[in-house]
Amino acid sequence: MLLLTMGLLDVLYTTVYLQSNSRTKIDYLYNSKDLDYDVVFLGSSRVNNHFVPKIFNEQGYKTFNFGITRSRLEESALMLKLMVERNYKIKNLILQVDLNINTNDHSEAIRSLFMPYLHRSQIIRDHYKNIPEYNELLYIPFYRYLHYDARVGFREMYYSLVHKRTNALDNEGFYPLTSHEGKMIPADLSKYYPKRNVAYEEIKAICKANNINLIAMTTPMCMSTINREYFNHIKSVYPEIYSFENAVTEDKYFATCGHMNKAGAIKFTKVVFNAFFKPKIQP
What we know:
Radius of gyration: 19 Å
């Protein structure tokens, strides 16, 4: 009876998630196909809060910000694999590669958001086949929903069932932060050191195989950051990564030392657009 109940609950939860596309960027991605983008943005909160698709769109480009707070390059690689599997047509990928190149680890919080689709997606199964708990997640009914209850448990399933939207997809995926008040607290990168990154190498290979123009770059941090030499070390590991950590420098453009506010994001997005693109729409 217990196994039967777990099996039925597993089917119920999975069925609900398979018809949900307005709660997270991952469910939107998984439940979409054949989308055509001139530019896609991938990365962590330093993409989610830093790139304003509207600025590109106003110049005739179709873009979307798929950056997810707390995600790492491993999750970005899996998202790109799913985009290819779903026949997305992507001309340019702007990828944040800075603090996230410090580790080959994953984000447990973001990994959980892929779990509802584990039984349905060979791409997701192949991506996670070497993690320690893979067999339990795949073969024990409902285990993945219990294991990741905080992110894909009953509460999230219910909100997906009643189609309760979040703001994750607003502004073509861009989430603006408010202005900083008070003294800026410096970020400390003294324990960070860039290294060869498996997921970044994977992303490069996927882009090459699918004729996607990859633009990998660092993004701004406040000037009081401790050990800004970290960004110079990135170039020694991956010379092709574009350096934009100094594109915006004034504290008034930051919400925290590592994240720009809305005004900073607009300023930065314009800098990036002008560096790599030209307007399609003539004034």
